[in-house]
Specification:
With 314 residues, the protein is mainly alpha-helical. Helices cover 48% and strands 1% of the residues. The protein folds into two domains: 1-90 and 159-314, no CATH class; 94-148, no CATH class.
Length: 314
């Protein structure tokens, strides 16, 4: 845990929204560090699956340009690391499934009146039996008395993963990102209208696809990723500052995670920028259909050229 804590704590990033219950800083820093190592693991999966046919693979549930199967993706969902540790939850074997209640609470509603659901491990069960057990707490309780649910010890495996991460390009990128050494230029006066609208700000800035579009565009225009995160966090705070709903996330931590994630994919070459086009974002509903001050296609081409030439700081 000490290695993860040192990794996650070096940037000095702290929540800006008070969220109970408080957690020790050491755990919050280790949680951020774990997220960075999981990013590395995600990059390795993406590289090894690059030639595999099927739905596109993403590291979060990001909107994509609809293909033959619609907006179909496989998500290796790392989004839990975008939130403070104290508001994340983990499903334990045979524990209650509370997501419907959490969603209702996030909308300022009472939890829905519905049948209790149980998180039943499906190993060794067919789908029909598993679903039946999820809806029958008494049967699930009887199974829990004899089921084996011990989590294997993985300390050695985690140490090997951390070792491989430390020698990777992504580790160098994360160190540069956390240093904040690069100087941000003045805000560019000419942004594509879709990006300008997101930074106005508008609600779609809270969506992963909106944050991805902003990150890619500002990278092209010379903004260091850490400064993109700071700008985005400030805009997100404007969206959430007047809300009377309970706080479910922290703007600083969410911007830090998503900008770091999307910038690492671009600079590491894992993101081919194939969907960074005006047509793709029109299909996704991000185009404001007004006079545009810059085409995404041209910006994507410029970003590929910058990446091929080598990122100076890396």
């Amino acid at each position: 845990m000490k290695a993860l804590q040192a990794l996650g704590g070096r940037a000095g990033i702290r929540p800006t929204v008070p969220l109970p219950p408080p957690v020790p800083a050491s755990l919050a820093e280790a949680f951020r560090g774990l997220g960075m190592v999981m990013e590395f693991l995600g990059h390795e999966v993406l590289r090894r699956c690059r030639e595999v046919e099927g739905p596109p693979l993403r590291l979060t549930a990001v909107e994509i340009d609809p293909g033959p199967g619609g907006r179909e993706i496989i998500s290796l969902d790392l989004s839990e690391y975008a939130d403070p540790l104290q508001i994340r939850s983990i499903r334990v074997p045979f524990g209650p499934y509370l997501k419907p209640q959490r969603l209702a609470w996030s909308r300022g509603q009472e939890g829905p009146a519905q049948q209790d659901l149980v998180a039943v491990p499906l190993a060794g069960l067919d789908e029909e039996t598993g679903l039946a057990l999820m809806r029958d707490p008494a049967r699930a309780a009887r199974l829990a008395r004899r089921a084996r649910t011990r989590i294997p010890e993985q300390t050695a495996g985690m140490q090997r993963l951390l070792h491989h991460y430390q020698g990777s390009f992504l580790a160098r990128f994360h160190a540069w990102y956390d240093s904040g050494a690069a100087v941000a230029p003045a805000r560019p006066p000419r942004l594509p209208a879709c990006v300008e609208g997101l930074l106005s700000p508008q609600a779609r800035l809270l969506c992963p696809a909106g944050l991805q579009l902003v990150t890619r565009t500002l990278l092209t225009l010379g903004w260091p990723p850490r400064h993109i995160a700071q700008l985005t966090a400030a805009r997100v705070s404007l969206l959430t500052g007047t809300s009377r709903r309970p706080a479910l996330f922290d703007p600083t931590l969410r911007a830090d995670f998503y900008v770091r994630l999307f910038a690492g994919l671009v600079l590491g070459g894992t993101d081919g920028l194939a969907d960074q086009t005006c047509l793709a974002y029109q299909r996704m509903g991000y185009c404001v259909r007004s006079e545009c001050r810059g085409r995404l296609d041209d910006l994507a081409r410029s970003l590929r050229q910058r990446r091929e030439g080598g990122w100076p700081a890396l």
